[in-house]
Amino acid sequence: MPNVGSKKAAKAALMMALTETREEEKELKIKLAEENIRAAAVDYGGDFISAVNKIVERAVVAAKREGVIKETHADEGAVAGATREAISQLMTKALGLNVGGKIGIARFQDHVAVAVFFGVGLLHLDEVGVGLGHRAVP
């Protein structure tokens, strides 16, 4: 069984990435805060190749803005690395296509997880996918 901390962070990040409205996001953040889990979510979209950097930047900015991480090199690098890991899991499905969706970021104790929900568009034939990355932070 995985470490309980990493599992809690991963589950929270996935739940945040799958919220459909800002209100649902806010409610979930309050619920997670009761379990000492800090969380954030942010939308993104665009051509996959050009969107990768924007997705990483948005994840780091949202995590700092919502107090999920501190403004330290280690924390920012952890979120950026976990986000890149999550994106890489969906690369073959999304390469050359338009993507859109939501990034969920969560921290429990010294565990940070980033989940990326992708809607991949090709004409009217949409595909979906989820990537998940994790990092330990000090």
From TrEMBL:
Name of one Pfam family that matches: HutP
Keywords: Activator, RNA-binding, Transcription, Transcription regulation
Domain of life of the native organism: Bacteria
UniProt keyword Transcription present: yes
Matching Gene3D superfamilies: Hut operon regulatory protein HutP (3.40.1510.10)
Function statement: Antiterminator that binds to cis-acting regulatory sequences on the mRNA in the presence of histidine, thereby suppressing transcription termination and activating the hut operon for histidine utilization.
Subunit structure: Homohexamer.
Family: Belongs to the HutP family.
Protein name in the entry: Hut operon positive regulatory protein
